[in-house]
Structures are given as C-alpha cells and as structure tokens.
Automatic annotation (TrEMBL):
<dbReference type="GO" id="GO:0005737">
    <property type="term" value="C:cytoplasm"/>
</dbReference>
<protein>
    <submittedName>
        <fullName>Putative armadillo repeat protein</fullName>
    </submittedName>
</protein>
<dbReference type="GO" id="GO:0005634">
    <property type="term" value="C:nucleus"/>
</dbReference>
<dbReference type="InterPro" id="IPR038739">
    <property type="entry name" value="ARMC8/Vid28"/>
</dbReference>
<keyword id="KW-0963">Cytoplasm</keyword>
<dbReference type="GO" id="GO:0043161">
    <property type="term" value="P:proteasome-mediated ubiquitin-dependent protein catabolic process"/>
</dbReference>
<feature type="region of interest" description="Disordered">
    <location>
        <begin position="339"/>
        <end position="388"/>
    </location>
</feature>
<dbReference type="InterPro" id="IPR016024">
    <property type="entry name" value="ARM-type_fold"/>
</dbReference>
<dbReference type="InterPro" id="IPR011989">
    <property type="entry name" value="ARM-like"/>
</dbReference>
<feature type="region of interest" description="Disordered">
    <location>
        <begin position="164"/>
        <end position="188"/>
    </location>
</feature>
<keyword id="KW-0539">Nucleus</keyword>
<keyword id="KW-0677">Repeat</keyword>
<feature type="compositionally biased region" description="Basic and acidic residues">
    <location>
        <begin position="378"/>
        <end position="388"/>
    </location>
</feature>
<dbReference type="GO" id="GO:0034657">
    <property type="term" value="C:GID complex"/>
</dbReference>
Length: 600
C-alpha cells in the first residue's frame, strides 16, 4: 500500500490516463488528498491544475444535470446511481483541491467551472431533485480570493439560490419576492414544502461560508446581497439550535455589520449587538471568536451612545477576561489534571502495564522504525520516501497536539478583544464632534477599567507568559511552557496606543508617562513582523505631535523622553537598515517629528 501511494504521488498522470468512470474520479480523490496533505512537491500544483481540474469538470459536464430527473421515478437503474456517485465525488474532490489555492481556483475558473457547477446548484431547486451539500463547496472556495470569481457567481444568478439555502425549509427563489428594506415582521422562516425538502446542516453552513466570501466585495454587499435580503435568514440563524450553524452565521455577520453594509441598520433594529454579546460568553471557542470579531466590526464607526451600550452589554469585566485569560488552555489543563487524578486513584499493576504498552503504541506516528530495518531495506528507501514519512509524522503530531490548538484559540480571541478596544476608541460617525468624542471615549474606558489597570493589561501582552505545564510521557528539564509575545498581539496593542496618541495632548502626556510600557515596546523594534514595526513608527509620530502652539513645550518634552528611552536610536536603525520601504519611510517621518516637533 505504501508503495502504491508513493507511486501514485510520483506519477499521477499514469493512473488518471489508464482509468475511467468512478475509478478515475477515485484516483483523482486520492491524488487530491496527497496534494492537500502536503505530500506532493509544490511544482506538482501546475500538473494538478492542468490534469485533475479539467477531468473533474469534464466528468460533471459529460453526465449533465439531466440524470437528476430519474429521481422522480420509482425505480433508479444502476447507471444513474453510479452517475450520482460520480457527481457527488467529483464536486467534493474539486472543492478540496481548489479551496486554498489561488492558482487552482484560476484553473477551474478558466475551465468554465462556474457555469458547470452553477447548473448543478440551480438544479437542486427543481422540485423533487436530489440535493447535495457538495455543490456548495467549490463555489465557496472559488470566490475566496479574486473579485472576478465573485462577480462570475453573481452574473450566473446564483446569489438567490445561495440565500435561499440559508433557510432550513427552502422554496424556489425564483418565486419569492425579497424586500430591500425588510421589516421585523418578516423574520419568521417559511413553512415546509415537500417539493423542495429540507436543507441539511451542511448545506446551511456551506451557504453561510459562500455568502461571507461574497460579502467581502463592497459592491456585491451593497447591491446583490442587499437586493436578496440576506440579513433576514442570516440573523435568524444566530438563534439556531445547532452550534455549527451558529458559528457559520456569526462568521457571516462579521461582514454584514460593517459600516459599509446597508443591512447594518436593519440588524441594529432587531438587536444583533445583544445576541453577539451573548455569544461571546459561549463555551465554544469558535463561536466566541466569531461573535467578538463581528462586534469589533460593528462597533467601528457607531456613535458614542451605541459604543457605551455595547460595552455595558458585554461588561468591562468580561472584556478584560477575553483579552487576558487563557480560557481554552485553562480548560485543557483542568481536564488533564482531573483525568490524571482519576487514573491515579484506580491504578494497579495491571493498569500500569497496560499504560506502558499503550505508550509505546501511541507516542509516535504509525510509521516503520527505521532503526530496526535491515541495511538493504534502509538503502532502498529513497529520499522522497523519507520526506513523505517525515511529513506524515508532522501531520500526526499536529492533529494530536491539543496544546497547540487551544493556544491558537486563546490567541485569536485575545487578538480580537484588543481590536475591539482599538475600534472602541477610534473615530465615530460624528464628523463635527469627532475629536471630542474620541477623547471622551478614552476617558470612558479609563473610568470603567481604571487607568492603571488598563495600561497594566496592555503591558502584560508584551511580556513573557508562563503557562501550565503538561505532563509529557517523556519528561524534559522544562517545568513550564513559555509563550513569547506574539506579533499579532503586539501589533494590536501598539495600534490601541496609536489611537490614544492621536487624541488630545492630555492623553499623550498620560501615555508618555508609562515608562515601563514604552521600554518593553522598544524591544519590539526588532520584530520580524512588518506590521509591528510600522505601527511603532506611527506611535512615535503621534506621541510627538502638537495640536497648537500651546502644546509646543509638551511636545518637545515628549520627544526628549523618547530619546532618553533610546527609541530614537531604534528608529534610526529602521530608517537605514530595514528591508521594507514602507517601514523606512515611516521611520524617517517619525525621526523628523522627534528631532523637530512641529505640526505638518
């Protein structure tokens, strides 16, 4: 079997050319699995795009959607059943193949994939047709990266069908009038229609994903999605009993509540903010993340009263919890500790022997032990086979690493919590009182959190963090896990400070007095992340800005403090040595501002 997989991965064309029908599609599925797992050379991507993608699309076009008409009959012959299987497998394979590759998406687009798949999608809304959730995935993946792909989906009139698939009980979208300005009374879903069946959870989730990708285009968001009243079924799904649908719906809300979305007013009227605040308290990390992400987008640009209402609904204490606490890491530690205590209380010699045997079986990937292989077998193992084995071992380790997963979940929530604060103290919708509202919002944040506590919170994100130790089967000298400041967290912290420094002189004076915070920020000038370095340059510029001649002396004093902390020297290093032009130019502007504090 290992040799077969290796040979398939080495020469995919041989299998594809010698097979036909379902055998050919299954071979394409195997090759897709090898490719998406990273076991194929990167150079093979072009081969996959020019061989696998056309074959899958050609199979779909050759069979055609007419084979679905047989579902109306009481008897279905074997050929029709086989064709249905080929259609489903081809769509699923195409989805997995192109979902994360811009090149393969382009190959599918160039092969007229939108037209072919669109025909199947529309056919699912013919009465008594066989519905398949796999139709959605290629569309959702294809429109992920290029605006041209999104426009193609709109041109093929697919959006009404996608929106209708948000409803558990669908009907024909062609027979439905969708008001541009939906009213609250239209929130109820339609009744069951036997002619169209019921959309399963997988279809609803995939439709949410496809609409979220389409909503990344402002023009589509403001026209096609608004015309099809996407906000009505999307909002309804936030209260769906299935957690996967709630997660998908909250992800869709991230793009529907932005300040450029016309359906934002309607969603505000039906209370979307309160539901999202409620979902940030979910035990599910994905739902908690999506809800907080949507709130971050919602709060950007709303008025002062709406911002305060949101913070009160969320509560200051819970906001601090989201930003500071390692919720998933703590939960994993508690589960691990509890299971160890339970095992220890029931352990006897037989259990110890069983665990010892289990250890050797599960401590590593299911691969042959090369140290025990004969010399002849070891010599026969090519470098490519060794590389494949290493890749499989890495994948197994990643799948089994709960610690890594919960760490990523916690960091993602913390990042969006910080971005929520950034937007909270950012510009408001009021053009005339924007500067005053900006300053008032910062003061409000100081009042509810406490000024010292607020800066301590930000400072903690720039320091090493010591996490709970997890007992490894093979113990090491390390007694704890150390988490270094993550670039995305540091960037979020710095941009909060950039907003504060863009406020009134009083807030700049408060910020320049945070010596420990600024000292630790100085260590981030060597960050490998470009966004962090650019943000630091913005911060230095804003800190030494002057609003009027009365602020001249204070501006000069702040510039002197930055020089004392050695930040001017670090900026000069960025200006001369940084590999990014944007960073060098930002550093140059900041140096001028520090050396000669004058308004531009």
């Amino acid at each position: 079997m290992d040799c077969l997989v290796f040979e398939l991965g080495y020469n995919p064309g041989r299998c594809m050319r010698s097979a036909e029908g379902m055998e050919r599609i299954m071979a394409a599925s195997v090759l897709t699995s090898l490719h998406t797992a990273g076991l194929a050379n990167k150079s093979r991507e072009a081969y996959m795009g020019h061989l696998i993608v056309p074959i899958l699309l050609q199979a779909l076009e050759d069979i055609g959607i007419t084979c679905g008409a047989a579902s109306e009959a009481s008897f279905v012959d074997a050929k029709t059943v086989t064709n249905w299987s080929i259609i489903e497998r081809s769509l699923a394979t195409l989805a997995r193949l192109i979902v994360d590759s811009e090149f393969l998406q382009k190959c599918a687009f160039d092969c007229d994939g939108v037209r072919i798949v669109s025909a199947y999608l529309k056919s699912t809304y013919e009465p008594l047709a066989t519905k398949s959730s796999k139709v959605w995935s290629p569309n959702a993946g294809r429109d992920a990266s290029k605006d041209d792909y999104r426009k193609a989906l709109v041109e093929h009139d697919l959006v009404p069908f996608i929106v209708e698939s948000l409803s558990p009980n669908p009907s024909n979208p062609k027979n439905k009038e969708r008001p541009k300005s939906p009213k609250r009374g239209s929130m109820e879903g339609g009744g069951y229609d036997a002619a169209y069946g019921v959309n399963p959870i997988t279809v609803i989730v995939a439709a949410c994903h496809a609409l979220r990708m389409l909503a990344r285009s402002v023009s589509i968001l403001r026209t096609t999605l608004e015309d099809n009243a996407v906000a009505i079924p999307a909002f309804r799904l936030l209260r769906h009993p299935d957690i996967d649908i709630q997660i998908a719906a909250s992800a869709l809300m991230c793009n529907l509540v932005t300040d450029v979305a016309p359906m934002r007013e309607y969603l505000n009227g039906v209370g979307v903010m309160r539901i999202l605040c409620e979902q940030t308290r979910s035990q599910n990390p994905a739902l908690r993340l999506n809800a907080l992400w949507a709130l971050k987008n919602w709060i950007n640009g709303v008025g002062m009263d709406a911002k305060k209402e949101c913070v009160e609904e969320l509560s200051a204490g819970w906001l601090v919890h989201l930003i500071c606490d390692d919720t998933e890491d703590e939960a994993l530690y508690q589960r691990t500790t509890k299971s160890k205590k339970q095992a220890a209380s029931d352990m006897d010699e037989d259990v110890e022997m069983a665990q010892a045997g289990e250890e050797s079986a599960t401590s590593g990937p299911a691969l042959p032990d090369t140290s025990t292989l004969p010399a002849s077998d070891e010599q026969g193992r090519t470098p490519r086979l060794r590389q494949t084995e290493r890749k499989i071992a890495e994948l197994c380790e990643a799948e089994l690493s709960l610690t890594r997963k919960v760490r990523d979940d916690d960091l993602a929530v913390q990042e969006q919590g910080l971005n929520f604060v950034r937007n909270l103290i950012g510009p408001t919708t009021s053009a005339t009182d924007s500067a005053r509202d900006h300053a008032d919002m910062i003061d409000y944040l100081f009042n509810i959190l406490g000024q010292d506590r607020f800066f301590e919170l930000l400072h903690s994100k720039l320091q090493l963090k010591y996490l709970h130790p997890f007992d490894r089967r093979y113990s090491t000298s390390r007694e704890f896990r150390v988490l270094y400041p993550q670039a995305r967290i540091v960037s979020a912290v710095v941009y909060i400070l950039v907003h504060m420094a863009a406020s009134v002189p009083r807030h700049r004076q408060v910020l320049i007095s945070q010596t420990r915070l600024l000292t630790d920020l100085g260590k981030q000038f060597h960050s490998k992340d470009k966004d962090v370095r650019v943000a630091l340059c913005h911060l230095m510029t804003n800190l030494t800005w002057r609003d009027d001649p009365d602020d001249e002396d204070s501006s000069r004093q702040r510039a002197g403090e930055l020089k004392k902390l050695g930040l001017l020297t670090k900026l000069e290093t960025l200006e001369s040595d940084d590999g990014e032009l944007d960073v060098r130019e930002r550093a140059k502007a900041a140096i001028w501002q520090i050396s000669q504090p004058r308004g531009f």
